[in-house]
Amino acid sequence: MSMQKTITVASLAILWTGAAQGLAGQNVPALKDVFKDTFLIGGALNRPLVTGKDPNAAAIAAKHFNTATPENDLKWQLVHPQPNQYNWEPGDGFVAFCEKNKLFAVGHCLVWHAQTPRWVFQDEAGNTLTRDALLVRMKDHIMTVAGHYRGRIKGWDVVNEALNDSGALRDDARGPWFRIIGQGDPNKKYDHIENAFRWAHEADPEAELYYNDYNLEVSKAKCDAAVALVKYLKSKGLRIDGVGIQLHGGLTYPSVQGLEYALTNLAATGVKVMITELDIRTQNRAPRGADVSQVNRQSTSDANAATAETQKRLADKYVEIFSVLLQHKKDISRVTFWGVCDKTSWIGGSPLLFDQNYEPKEAFFAVVKAAQQ
Q: What are the catalytic residues?
């Protein structure tokens, strides 16, 4: 072992034992350096972080990440709140932060059923739009937003969460894109997705394009449906560079087998596989996945989240997940946490590697150790 490696391992040991006393956070290794030979590592950034109102979170992002995704500011309801009205300032701030800190910027997201204003799916009288009218509206949004960031945002989550856990396309009240554009016709089931990818590529031919969804590592049926979707888009000659596995996990899931199934089968389509929204909730009774109608701080709250026992289980689960990811590193291009620290996590509790006080947790050191081994 080299002198440098000996010093690094010794330093990690000291930091591990001193974490509880607040010694950590001083000279811990940067995650982007730890994983420099495997995949990009990043987080979802909120507005206070990129505007400098949360300098501690910004410092974590600048030190540890080499890729970033905006948590909310490029979702339709924020960037395009009214017809013919675009709010560029938040997204521009995100991109500027990424450029300043040399982060690979990912846009999230162009087409989604949630956090999209009702007017998008209605005419001026409040009636449901026709198929053709909604296609026009979707094209205008994609061309305008992706076009605005052309050459600056390097990859886009083009379509987000179009599948149910059964593998079927969403066709209920939470699936207006398929319901209106697909018209319930099996021959048109991919129409809104196909057009979204076509227009995203037209808006920025250099940007990578992704499909993003949750529970792909939990539901084989949903994973198989995502595989079929990728193959369909490829058969049409459309650009699709990757599939994002959100991986909103828990202390007891996903299983190693489920995660390996998703990684292996998605990679077999020839696209990149990415972990795009990683966090681990400690409340076992909480709903799985990322359905925003069910999952929130209240549904995932856990009074025992900060206990030593829970933190040990959290660290163990992160090690299990990263051990699988490292074994499949040739197929994985990026791992992004959904947030930066527990203080601002969308699900609250203790789901990330940095705590309420911006300090690295036991899980942080466990992940670093797993990577170095």
A: 161, 277
